[in-house]
Amino acid sequence: MARVNGGSRSWGPRTGAGRSASRGALWFAGVGGGLLGGSTTGVLEALWILTSTAPSEYQAVLYGTLLYGAVGALLGSGVGVLAVAGSSARRPSPAVVWCVGYFGVVSSLGWFILRYLLNRDVFLEDGVPTGVLWGVAGGLAVASAIGVWLGNNLLTKTPLRALTRPKGTAALWGGGAGLALMVSVAPAPTTTGLEVPHHPQDGTGGRPNIILVQVDALRYDALGVDVVGTPAGEHPSESPHLDEFARGAVVFEQHIAAASWTRASVASLFTGLTASSHGCMTKHDVLRSDVVTLAEALAGANYATGGFPDNPNVTAGFGFGQGFDWYPYSPQYPLGATESSYGLSLYSVARKLYARVHTTHRVEEYYAPAEAQLAQLTAWIDGQGRDRWFGYVHIMEPHDPYFRHPLDGSAYARAAHAEPTPAEAADLRALYDGEVRHADEELGRFFAALKTDGLYDDALIIVTSDHGEEFHEHGGWWHGTTLYDEEIHVPLLVKLPHQARAGTRVSWQTRAIDVPATILDVAGVPVPDNWQGETLFPDDFDQQLALTFPPVVEPGDPLLPWTRPTWAQLPASRAAISEEDFDGYALQSIRADGRKLIEGLVVPADDPHRQPSEALYDLIADPQEHRLIPDDPAKEGLRVRLMTSVGSPNGDSLTTPFPTRRPGLALLGYTEDGK
Ligand SMILES: [Zn+2]
């Protein structure tokens, strides 16, 4: 310690301010070390984010430098205060204080980030085992100790000693921040699918313009189309405009999403592949570039393609811009963050603090409201002139936060209230329905404008959703954690050109993976060979329809008692596979033959739904899925069909029971059973 003190004395006189300056200098050494340590950590995390996605901008580098630098300086200030707290004889040198500030901040912020990333990307949100956490903590502690020792040598024996002075640290940090600023404003390389090619319009003359509307988290029963046959007034519709739209469309009554969270489900909607086949299932996954997306198929057929995502999970950064000429996403997140900065661990903390202080919520801080999304699509359509085009628009209402309409700044968000009480179910559903009404009104306005512009009649317009939403039907909330129908049964309304088949209701089961094939089929574009979905308008559509809609049977008719064939009986080939790997849940289900089998591969111990490892339901007798069927001859058949249906499109894993969903665990020697 005496030798260290000597260092302090030899440095002190250079400032010419004696002992009091030495206290200030020590404190500053802590702040300076912390500032640089924080910024280093922020830049490292930003680089991790930018290299694991396909970013459209690099703001995270500057944001990480500033945000982590500020937090680091604050922590380093604490180190400085501790350094000057003791008697003067026991004070360490500025070099030691600077190094403790630097490595203390790097290791503590690093610990925070590593724990988060390990859980999300390696352990797929199942929780990091305690042993691994101790290992990481021990590694960081040892690395920090070595860092302090090495750093102290460098800061006392080399010109780097300038860093322990305010000017030195300020110069280095300023240079780094300037570099970060330059990187953050640099144009990102054009990401896949964002080139703007010219589409020669030969051969598209007979083809329809296409609009795909995806309303996020919209349950089937949230729409008026669900209440056919209900006496008027008993169940007032929340969606008069979509009901009107549906009267000119084909309504698919049993449409099933491929997953119950956005990224995996939209990836299926875009690729015609089940979730384990396209592989974009977890929060870490990016949509592979070797899949053929709907937009790519249409661009290949000379369609102009414009997409307007409104959820951070389906942006170009995650590969969803493939095939689109134009796929903008410019969120207005609080505190000036862009899409890339949104991924910084500390930003999520800052955002939560901000939400606590700002209890008046603005929709724009979460997503672009429906009117803004539809205005963007309209402007893009206006720019296409006489070209054939395909427009995809993502509407975030009624996804949480559930805003009260008309907007009064109040909202109910999953992030802030993860577990509402059962008594809140009706209130939350009312808020959700209010969001549905808002989306419906804006879509009504949009359709009216298309009619005014003469674009409505010719167009193929599809309205669907990526998943539903739970309101405590099975003991939980939100979505992404079960494969019960409230989370996967969604609307599918298909308005064919010139309102062909208007008012047709299809009672058999259809799947999200069938939607892109249907769009290509109606547009007369060949369906890619490896897509697993099929067109919903096959040649025998009318025969199938005739079977499900027989002529009206008079009382006393010998055909009575006639039972209408259900969706479950027609057609047998369309088993719906849904898969989930989200928030620590890994689930698979098959919905076929009037049954649903759900395999709970990984279910957290504190699952409020208490989902068993295997559950079979009779959807005809028990559509609410509340009564487990213990034994059923159909069970084994369903299990085999499920097992042979999940896997990659190349067939790699079609022979193994379940896809390997735990690359990280396997890497570390953990197995499914060993967890
Ligand atoms: Zn969603």
Task: Looking at this protein, list some descriptive labels.
15 strands, binds zinc ion, 675 residues, Alkaline Phosphatase, subunit A, seven-stranded mixed beta sheet, single chain, four-stranded antiparallel beta sheet, Arylsulfatase, C-terminal domain, disordered C terminus, alpha/beta
The overall average pLDDT, rounded, is 85
The assigned CATH architecture of the largest domain is 3-Layer(aba) Sandwich
Shape estimate: elongated
Number of helices: 19
Number of domains: 3
Give a list of the ligands: zinc ion
How many runs of DSSP E, i.e. beta strands?
Answer: 15
How large is the share of residues in beta strands? 5-15%
CATH superfamily membership of the largest domain, which one? Alkaline Phosphatase, subunit A
- Largest sheet properties: 7 strands, mixed
Estimate the helix proportion, in percent. Answer: 40-55%
Numbering strands along the chain, what is their spatial order in the largest sheet? 3-4-1-7-10-2-11
**SS class:** alpha/beta
Query: What radius of gyration results from the CA coordinates?
Result: 29 Å
In short:
The protein has helices at residues 2-15, 18-52, 59-85, 94-122, 130-157, 166-185, 240-247, 262-271, 275-278, 294-300, 339-342, 345-357, 370-382, 425-452, 485-488, 514-523, 541-548, 634-645, 663-667; strands spanning 210-215, 250-256, 304-308, 389-395, 402-403, 411-412, 460-464, 470-471, 477-478, 489-495, 505-511, 576-582, 585-592, 595-602, 614-618.
